[in-house]
Structures are given as C-alpha cells and as structure tokens.
Amino acid sequence: DRLTKLVGIFERLDFRANRAHGDDLLGDAYEYLMRHFATQSGKSKGQFYTPAEVSRIMARVIEIGPNTPRRHSVYDPTCGSGSLLIKASDEAPHGLTIFGQEMDVATWTMARMNMILHGHTTAEIERDNTLAAPRFADGPGRLKRFDFAVANPPFSTKAWSNGLDPDHDEFRRFEYGIPPAKNGDYAFLLHLVASLKSTGKGAIILPHGVLFRGNREARIRRNLVKRGLIRGVIGLPANLFYGTGIPACIVVIGKEAAATRKGIVMVDACGGFRKDGAKNRLRERDIHRIVDVFNDQRDTPGYARMVPLDEIASDANDYNLNIPRYIDSGEPEDLHDLGAHLHGGIPDRDIDALDRYWKVFPGLRRALFAPGGRPGYVNPRTSPDEVREVVLGHGEFVAYRERVRAAFDNWRREHESRLYGLGVGDSPKILIRKLSEDLLDRFADLPLIDRFDVYQCLMDYWDEVMQDDVYLVVTDGWSEAARPRVMVGKRQAGESPDLTVRRTKYKMDLLPPDLVAGRYFAEEQREVEFLLAEQDRIGREVEAFVEENTSEDGLLDGATTDAGNVTQAAVRVRLREVRGGGGDPEERDTLEVCLDRMKAEAKAKRAAKSARSLLDVEILARYATLTRSEIADMVVRGKWTASLEDAVGRQVDRLTTGLVERVTVLEGRYAEALPELTQRAEELEARVRSHLRDLGIAG
C-alpha cells in the first residue's frame, strides 16, 4: 500500500524531459524502492528482487544486445517483481516481447505494476505455480518456446513437486533426469531448458551445489553436458542476493550449435565486488569484465577458461563442474628460501615472479639487482629506503607513465568536442556509453595497468559527480546549470553551501567557485591562502605556548575557564589580578606574551575572513557574466577531465607501490644471512661478558 501511494505521488510529477533523454524516472524510482525494500526485508521478502548488476550480466551473456529485434521474446518462469525481465529487455534497443510467471499473489501484483511503470504495457505476466501449472503453452503437452529465458528461482526448494508428477510430466521436462524429491534446483533449470526454442539461449541463477552434487543431480548434469546444452558457468561473489548470503552461480544455456559444442566457458568472478552496507555489489568493471571474457571465450589465468568437454568428462572430473577444479584463483604462497637465509642473496625465483614488470622495465631490473655470488641468486644494488626513488626516476618508468598519459590525452581530445557540445535534449546514457567503451579500447593494449581499473575510474566519477552534472546541462543548458542556487530553509542532508555572501548561502551544483577563482581571481586567491596559512601558523604558536605553560604548576594555570581552557578573556582577568595584587613578575610576563599572541591570532582570523568575504563577493558577481563557452571549458577541462586524469594517475601510483613494496620486502627478508647474524650475536655476547667482568660479576 505504501509503495502504491508513493507511486501516486510520482505520477503527479512531470517526467517528460527525462523521457526525452531515454530515461524512465518513474519506473526507476519504483525499482529503487523495491531494491531497498528487499535490502531491509531480508529473507522474508528479498527473494522477489534480482540485483540489477546480475540481471545485466545475464542479459549480455545470452547475447541480448543492440541488434536484438523487439519481436524476440524473453521469459522468466519465476519472475518475482519482474526486475530481471525488465533489465534483460533494456539491453535491446527497442525492448523485447516479455513473458513471465509468478506464484506469489503480492509479488505478481508488484511485477505487473513494475511492467506498467517501465512502459511494458503489453508484457504478459501470469500467476500460478510454474512447475505444476505452467501458463504458457502451445497446446496440450507442449510448452511455449522463447528466444531467451532468464530466471532466479528460489534456491533448493523442498516442495518443488507439489501438484506435479515428475515421472509422468505432460511437458516432458525431465527427460534428462528427475531431480531429488527435496531439492528443486534442477527442476527449474530443466523447465528453463524446455522453454527455449531450438536456437534459444538462457541463464539461470542457482547455488553452487548444482555444479558438483551427486546422485540424481549428477546424472542430470552429465546428460546436459553431453548434449552440449551448458554454454558456461559464472561463479559470483557471496552475499550478492537478497534473502540469502550463500554464493551463487549463473548457469548459461545454449541450444544453438549444442551438438558441436567442444567446451564450457568457466568464469571465477567470486573476488570482484564492493561492500554496500550489509550486502556485496558488483562494480561496473566487474560486470564488463565478466561479460567480455565470457562472450570472447578468452582464457584469463586465475579468472576464466574455456574448459574442453574431454577434460570435464575425464575419470578425474566425471562431469563435476565445480569451478575450482578448473580455475586456480588463489594467490601463490609466499615461500621463504632457506638457502638465501643461510648464505644471503635474493632468489631468482622471487624476482622472476615480478616478470610482468620486467617485461615493461627490463632495465629497471638491472638497476635494482646485480648478479649474486652463486647461481640462482641476486644481490640488491640499493637499500630498501632507496627503492622507490630508483623506480620513480628510472627512464623506463618515466616513459611508461608518459604512455599512460598519452592514452588518456588521446581519449580526452577525442571527446572534448562532444562534451563541449552537450546541449538540451542530449542523452546522458549514450554519452557515458561512448566515453566508457572508448576508454576501455584505448587502454586495452597498455601493459601492466588493468583497463577495467581505468574504466572503473570513469564509472565511479560518473556515478558520484559527472552524471548529475550532465543531467543538469542536458536539462537546463550550460548557463542555467551554472547559475548559483540560493539555499533556503533547512539544508538538505549532507549539503553545505559553496559560498556565503551577506548571510545568503549559495550552492554551485555544476561549476565550483574554486574553478572560477583559479581562472579569474588567482592573485586574490593566493592572498587568501597566504592569510589562512598565517592564521594557522600563529594558531599553532599559541597552542604550543599554552600547552607549554599549563603543565603541572604552569604559569597559565590561573588563566583557565571552569572547563579548563585558556581563553583570551580568562587571560585578561588573570592579568588584571596579577597587576593589581603585585603577583609573580614571571607569571605577569607569561600572561602578557600569551595575550599578545592571542590578539595576533584574532587579527589574523579577521584578516583572512575579510579577504575571503571580499573574494566571495567578486566570485558571485563573476558568475553572472560567464559565457557558455567559459562555463563549458572550466567544467570539461578543469573539473571532469582533470579529476579523471588524477584518478588514472593514482592507478599508476598503485602499480608503482605494488612493485616497490614487494622489492622492499624481499630486500629486507634476506638482508642478513644466518652467518652474519650468528657473528653479530657472538660479538654482542662477548661485549656483554666483558662488561660483566668489568663489574666483577663474571670471571
């Protein structure tokens, strides 16, 4: 009821401008509410919602994309709120023909509302038990077949056969085997397989147990693999789904070319996610990486493999699809070398393990390490404290950093005109798609740096800052979007003013005042920064002076408030008392020095505040005269691309840190061999014995 009332409020708002951009704010708002309802409801209601990130992966790995026509159908036999169907349809440029079935009455109602709010008014969403009473059929004993099918059924349901006789199923869904009586995972998988056309593709979310459990499930799995129906398996991180924290996988089904299938694509994506409150969420880079390696069938050590069917069918594996059997995603063990500890040197094995760096920086390896005195070991040329300086200053590393910068600059130049030309009515979604895909391509051939890390830099900045900026521009235009906004009433949560002029607070949503100050009032800005630095310096001097004279029996102990603080007022009062009563001259002098310094600090604060206020007035006035091109230039270059360039630079810094830290660890680990340590221990022992003899304690 609350959701319905809230939707009624949204319906009274005008979203026509956003629909022109290809956005569906009403539907997205409803989706947002359902996601948060699922988050808060936990196991009781969370099963109706599939995280959007997982839905997008499922749609893309079954190849719903820009060339998929609207006449193609997509089906979800356990559709819940319909979110999975909607996300699948969204991957096609004009949507898809949608079919779904849901057993729970309340959830079925939510699904129908969700379809209407997202504009899918022709979607057919039926209510009933999919296994016992499938509502989509092409006559008696024949299920309706679809081009695509997606599903996130309830995990390991025990009552799957209620109202159903699996041995005599009229739709012949269990010809590959009958699932266990108390576990319905394969029942839903087999229903999905039976609901696909001869060229159909499907994806279903299931617990990892379906990949390796034995007995009846093993027989079904063997038959599906032998028929070539399983295209791939994608292992997902734990705690992604609402209502359960167990890790799950996506089983990808493909009927097209099943008879000639030679292998199964396996992806171990369990380690790629970010924390989001109590749940884990896939990042944009995780989504893109999973889809890319799966669709390209690209072998990636520790992450993805095209596993031959012969290997899966071998006696050792016996059709077990458990991903760790085929992909070792663990970090290699960091082993100590006994020989190095005994005789010194760093093992070649440990240096060779950094080969991905040496392929790019062969000369750097020679700069850091010299041949050792014995085969298989090297000696460091630098101390651990000097490693970072050597790496950062080496010509090969400097050249590599320039390659990264050049790749980013080429991307920036390619898209600057597009960004400058943004106008009312343009599509933010098309913009970010072009920006992000081109950024991925430009960093694809650069060694060391992970192009998906660079991609995530853009997507994070888009989510946090740039998306809101772009929506402002395409809705209101550059000039209006840059207009200072007067903050009235109570400030919004987390929102603070950018400028305060004559007690009026202003928010600059698009163009930060620092950028305006930096371009047009650089000298005044430097003056403010100098005065603030001077204020800070004097403040630290006052703090140190007070601390020095308020220790036990300090000369400022009599100038404290009831709370124990030394204030200018308290110093004045105590100084009058000392002067009038002929107190300690040293205390008087200390109080006078303290008062002078506090006055100086107050004066510095007034000067900095005055200069800041005058600058704010000039900045605010300047906003009114800015041209469209001036605004666009400051935002595109000074804000957007400058921030992204910094983020990409931090990725290079992270690479540097990884190399420096590993080399430093190795140098420190084998810095002193056992004979040297033994000799030093003997020397120290001899010195101690000598001291004891001198003291007459030992002979």
CATH fold-level name of the largest domain? Rossmann fold
Report the strand count: 17
CATH architecture of the largest domain: 3-Layer(aba) Sandwich
Radius of gyration: 34 Å
Number of domains: 3
Q: Termini, distance in Å? A: 93 Å
Mean pLDDT: 89
Can you give the helix content as a percent range? 40-55%
Name the beta content range.
Answer: 5-15%
Determine and state the CATH class of the largest domain.
Alpha Beta
Count of alpha/pi helices:
25
Strand line-up in the sheet with most strands: 3-2-1-4-5-7-6-8-11
Find the structural class using helix and strand composition: alpha/beta
Show unreliable segments: 15-24, 42-46
Q: Which shape, going by the Cα principal axes?
A: globular
What is the name of the CATH superfamily of the largest domain? Vaccinia Virus protein VP39
Main sheet properties: 9 strands, mixed
